[in-house]
Design goal:
- The chain is elongated, with a radius of gyration of 24 Å.
- The protein is 78% helix and 0% strand.
- Helix 1 runs parallel beside helix 3.
- By secondary structure, the protein is mainly alpha-helical.
Length: 301
């Protein structure tokens, strides 16, 4: 039944595979191979809750079962529970058995997925450490380039702009259509003053690729403002502030550009929106207070 289930699975007949695995479990309820196979099949059928229940049944039997922990982590990543995914992947690494052929075959993907989840939760130093180690082992192999953007963006968040530029440039060599890498590299050039025109071009290209991406539009507006194109920048930001997801960042950038223009009234008006909004997070509040202090200093006495 296990073998016949695998045969159906390889033919993408997932319903038949589930039927065979479940029949097998009627005979051997604690067979972890059957349970892991069933859990993976449920996951591919988007039966997420049943997949988690099945992997947890494996872990009740074998708390350090590598494949169950790995597969559970993949499921948690899929539903964007990145913190829990990091825990599952880390436990799987601790349980790794180098003598097991299946575990050896899955180790590389586990290490990559762990690095990505570290990125998602903002643990950028650990993301870099994990993915650089992974890249060193697989450099030149097909697919090895997929870590480059995560490393480059992580360096940006750590304000290591030279390293960020290096890795983002590598990412764009392998994929010139990576809008996030284009947008972030443009922002790096703005931060380091290494070419405002190049920065503007990169940010513009990212918006042309994904016109509805608010984060790209805000970075593009910033590049336009640095180039002195204030009205165009403010027009782009106006569309961002109509989106609940990007409203606060849009107001922040608008206030910053108003300050650059010397438009004290509009700067203060946008800052008041940030201070009064229930959606304002601590980081936004800190940035708004810095802008407010700069406004007080620049306003005519």
């Amino acid at each position: 039944l296990n073998v016949s289930g695998d045969a159906y699975f390889s033919e993408s007949d997932l319903s038949a595979a589930v039927r065979e695995y479940r029949k097998g479990l009627e005979l051997a309820p604690h067979d972890v191979n059957l349970l892991n196979s069933l859990g993976v099949t449920y996951a591919l059928m988007n039966m997420t809750e049943m997949a988690f229940d099945t992997f947890n049944r494996v872990l009740d039997i074998e708390p350090d079962n590598f494949m169950a922990l790995f597969n559970k982590g993949l499921g948690e990543k899929k539903i964007k529970d990145y913190e829990q995914a990091v825990k599952s992947f880390t436990r799987a690494l601790s349980a790794f058995n180098s003598d097991d052929e299946e575990e050896r075959a899955s180790l590389g993907e586990l290490q990559f997925q762990l690095g990505v989840c570290q990125f998602r939760i903002g643990n950028h130093r650990e993301c870099i450490r994990q993915l650089k180690k992974w890249y060193k082992q697989r450099k030149g192999e097909p697919g090895s380039e997929r870590c480059l953007r995560y490393i480059g963006i992580s360096y940006f968040h750590l304000e290591q702009f030279k390293e960020s530029a290096k890795w983002l440039q590598r990412a764009l060599v392998t994929n010139q259509s990576d809008g996030e890498a284009l947008s972030m590299l443009g922002t790096v050039y703005l931060q380091t003053g290494e070419g405002d025109d190049i920065a503007l071009n990169l940010c513009q290209r990212s918006v042309e690729m994904e016109p509805d991406n608010g984060a790209y539009k805000i970075r593009y507006a910033r590049a336009l403002a640095v180039s002195g194109k204030y009205d165009q920048a403010l027009e782009i930001l106006a569309s961002c502030t109509r989106s609940r997801k990007f409203r606060i960042n849009g107001w922040l950038e608008t206030a910053r550009i108003n300050l650059m223009k010397g438009d004290w009234h509009d700067c203060e008006r946008n800052l008041k929106k940030i201070f009064s909004s229930k959606e304002t997070e601590p980081l936004h509040l800190e940035q708004a207070k810095e802008l407010q202090a700069a406004l007080v200093e620049k306003q005519p006495k």
